[in-house]
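Annual report, structural modelling task.

Input specification for the iron/sulfur cluster complex:
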Amino acid sequence: MSGPLLKVENLTKHYPLGAGIFKKGIPVIRAVEDVSFSVEAGETLCIVGESGCGKSTVARLLMRLVEPTGGRVLIDGTDIASLKKDALRAWRRRMQMVFQDPYSSLNPRLTAGQIITEPVENFERLSRKQRQALAADLLRQVGMAPEMMNRLPSELSGGQRQRLGIARALSLKPSLIIADEAVSALDVSVQAQILNLLLDLQQQMGIAFVFISHDLGVVEHIAHRVAVMYLGRIVELAPSEALFAKPVHPYTEALIAAAPVPDPTRVRLEASVEGEVPSPINPPTGCAFHPRCPLAIERCCIEVPPLVPMADGRVVACHVRAPATGMPIQPAVKGDHTLDPVAMSESHSAQASRVPR
Ligand code: SF4
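The model returned the following structure:
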């Protein structure tokens, strides 16, 4: 089949506040707005942004754990919303999810072996011998001893539980794994082991990943392409190397500047931004970043910037840095336009508990 493995078109998710139904005038949380991207077989697309930017809602929409308000998700060209019972079951074999907290996503009463083989047994009957062989094989694939199949999740370390979650996701031989903050709960050395495991599995099995993360260090390590989200929208989507070498959108620039720099030879970007993240219930008009953007011009307060393709293969939504054809690049209107990453991350943290993930 030609074309991308996964295609997302204009995906939108609004949550009504209070009444539970959409009525004119009832406020809504605009968790995801008009998000489009595609993922090729064997590719890793990372979606980054701080808490509340809508990246985890995108993950849930991809898995059909929540229904979209608008837009569609196509796998191998088929709209998943059109799938009926059997086709939906078959599709679910192809997309699996790995969650942030391995402990709460694993049934504490089942052994590791039962947890791993449970998805397969939803589709086919296995003899005891087949179950044990499958569990042993998958445990080996994720670097665990087959003898661990009799242990309960509570008898495993955090890293082993995350490996178990990955083994469970692999059991149905998926084409695509959605990993939502899959390593953020782990300490740094275990994170590296799990990331290397995912990269090895991708090479061996050609699995595509949609990897949701707020950690740019992790993203730079594994991404082929990166989508940056701000307040429900993608503001920049670029090949990973190009994005980290030269971020174009002012928000991407500030995010990268705010990230720790592990390489002492690399120069930290200077960037500053003022103010708080606006509420997704009543987002600013025009570009949602405009109240905090040092490059903002009048047009930014009125028009939502479209994603404009650039020469190096990225798309950027910014009236100033990526003007649509025919529009001149405007001079900035405030200060010297350096972005302050500390102020930015503090204001994002303050908002984190108020917005859906
Ligand atoms: Fe800043 Fe305007 Fe670009 Fe938005 S569109 S990022 S406000 S310059």
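The mean pLDDT is 83.
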